[in-house]
């Protein structure tokens, strides 16, 4: 049964519709909307991200197979793909599913309109209130079963519940809850904190309290919003407590000297504040030397500390000892290490790449079509994105310049080549695959503001593949194939978008017009219909970006040239 948030009516009493939310990979919500009305059977699949095109056919076939075994359900369904807006972040897929469902139930035709955060916030508030309505209805039904009359207290409680719903809706509809969150709830990386000041004379943090904590100022990074304001990275947002050593005036050196030379008379205990024990030691000559020896060992090993709970002042060359903790940690660490080693050897896949082979790690964008659409990229090629991709590649090259020798990329793809003799990470497959994709994604997100004026709406995902190439000829052949792919893709995309933008036709019509055309046909189409000479297009679009280390200078260079076997670049590159 489906509950309609608009009129609080159970749908199965009026219209025969089925709505089935589906959780994909346990982390993303999509849904099916199926109309069972005769002569208007429809099967609608909507994904808020718009990137599960292959799953539509799978779900549709499953539904048709289900209909065949049911005599009361027609099997003649039309699979409809509606144009709809995409979610603008990575977390509100569930709310978008509910919003699209509401639009379909109300037979609205504005699914394609952009869904902003304000719309999601308002609809989330409606969901919360609807849930409270359901719970309040259940309470009323239970009370009707037990008694048919309301008392004054019950009427008051109903009014309070209604007021609570109004207050809840008001709070959710007011200023953004997330903007009003406390800055102390920010995640690591969204703020930076000052380092505690150190008292050189005592070798400890200034203003460290008796509980072993010191307060430092923390600054939300630029453009982070909390506590109702946008921070610039220089304004204090909150104060954080860090652990520290609470020190007063007790010197470790002085205490040791007292214990060795005057400990038999209790001077060490007097100095540390244990006056009663000090008097007893003085009267008994250090408990007949036994207490003298015990205290000396405890003080030297720093197990006997000042009576006020503070720590010793230890000179910069002194050693702060925790012998019992060290022993415990060593035993625990060795046990856990031995236990983990057994598990690791049994379950971990530790595949190593063959030696003396070129290691080529290729990364490419995952669901990049959706990413470019939501972030409003310019078609067919966005120069800002190309510059950002090249910058990310260059930074990775600089970071791993002792191991990388080439990189090549175009569109949303980049390939990085490690020299055959590299021993980086002991040539472990998993580390090479994760290293490049994680670094590239991090640089892409961090450097985005330098190349784009608009804020990133949807964050990118890059996946990685690894190829082992035995010889340099194999490597050059690989680059030739990728450069040919770059050339063909740009030529097709240039023709495709020229038809759409200049002739004002739909995407389907443009695809039909380009079906079966060869490379020469596409060149002729561009020149005759739009006056575009493909050979005059920027080389970075037609040939991609090649980065290499120069043989002589060892500097990293960037060029946009042909990568065929007879190219001069292979004589200059390392």
Provide structural commentary.
The protein has about 575 residues and is of the alpha+beta class. It has 5 domains: about 10-115, Adenoviral Proteinase, Chain A (Adenoviral Proteinase, Chain, 3-Layer(aba) Sandwich), CATH 3.40.395; about 125-175; about 185-245, no CATH class; about 250-315, no CATH class; about 360-570, 2-Layer Sandwich (Alpha-Beta Plaits), CATH 3.30.70. About 45% of the residues lie in helices and about 15% in strands. The protein has helices spanning about 55-70, 95-105, 115-145, 150-175, 250-260, 265-270, 275-285, 285-290, 290-300, 325-345, 370-375, 385-400, 430-450, 470-505, 505-515, 520-530, 540-545, 570; strands at about 15-25, 30-35, 40-45, 80, 190-195, 200, 205, 215-220, 225, 230, 240-245, 245-250, 310-315, 360-365, 405-410, 415-420, 460-470, 545-550, 555-560. It has a 6-stranded antiparallel β-sheet, sandwiched between helices. A 4-stranded mixed β-sheet has the order 1-2-3-4, with helices on both faces. A 3-stranded antiparallel β-sheet has the order 5-8-11, with no helix packed on it. The radius of gyration is 35 Å and the shape is extended.
